[in-house]
Amino acid sequence: MTPRKWWLIGLGAALLLATLSPLASGSPDGLERVAEDNGFIEKASDAPFQIIADYVFPGVENETLATILAGWFGVLVMFGAVYAIGWIITRSRRSTP
């Protein structure tokens, strides 16, 4: 199987998982859960910038659709960045004697 097919399979799998993201638990987990359990959640400050706050795409009233769109947006941005970095590395290796 060619590397391009693996890239496309990975992209498809990530988009499928993003589509299923509204099924994820709405309960906090990780650090947010620990902060709530230990009573220091109010000391948290907002991130310096937020592109898509709370994983909901802005301007879409249906929350399920907004969550899916936010997931797709994130997947495509990260896929583009990783693909570009891979392309640059591959190109530099080919040009090195």
From TrEMBL:
Residues 1-26 form the signal peptide. The keyword Cell cycle does not apply. Keywords: Cell membrane, Membrane, Signal, Transmembrane, Transmembrane helix. Its main location: membrane. It is found in: Cell membrane. It comes from the Bacteria. Residues 4-91 form the PDGLE domain. One of its GO terms (cellular component) is plasma membrane. This is PDGLE domain-containing protein. It comes from Dehalogenimonas sp. 4OHTPN.
